[in-house]
């Protein structure tokens, strides 16, 4: 009965993240932030919700997780925490840009532009794989890649506009 425990922990984590993201979103909007690309956001909610539901429905609850997969998923959680910590009040599940705010270049953002999408994409693959659900890992990874590709295009436009704005001011 470890599968329900794992799924409950993942769901609880996601719910906490949604609460934290909503709080940060509200504060960023109060500071003059603007949401970009809101139209595709509901698709991410559907994707992540259906991913957990698919795992819950198609994985026998007596399944024991692969130890290496479980370890990989735990390591990803440290990456996720590092990302959230690094972005602090700017971490949200939406694309919110605050005109004039400098871009975060600490933590994993020193090494790559979108570490959050890397971690989330790996989670979508690793969790079902560690439970023997290869088809869920492949199907949701493909759907996620399509959404992430679109989102990165939208987010890069917003970040580039902010970078250009900062250069003009400086």
Describe this structure in words.
With about 170 residues, the protein is mostly helical. It is built from five helices and two strands. Strands 1-2 form a two-stranded antiparallel ribbon. Helix 2 packs antiparallel against helix 5 (about 135-170), helix 3 (about 65-85) packs antiparallel against helix 4 and helix 4 runs antiparallel to helix 5 (about 135-170).
Summed up, what is this model?
It is built from five helices and two strands. The chain has helices spanning 2-30, 41-58, 67-87, 115-130, 134-169, and strands at 34-36, 95-97. It has a two-stranded antiparallel ribbon.
Write the SSE topology.
Layout lengths: L1 H29 L3 E3 L4 H18 L8 H21 L7 E3 L17 H16 L3 H36 L1
Antiparallel strand pairs: 1-2
Helix pairs in contact: 2-5, 3-4, 4-5
Helix content bin: over 70%
Order of secondary-structure elements:
HEHHEHH
Assign an overall shape: elongated
How many DSSP E strands? 2
Q: Report the radius of gyration as a whole number of Å.
A: 17 Å
Tell me the strand order in the biggest sheet: 1-2
Strand coverage percent: under 5%
Q: Tell me, rounded to a whole number, the average pLDDT.
A: 94
Helical run tally: 5
**Biggest beta sheet attributes:** 2 strands, antiparallel
Low-confidence stretches: none
Keywords:
single chain, 170 residues, mainly alpha, two-stranded antiparallel sheet, 2 strands, 71% helix, elongated
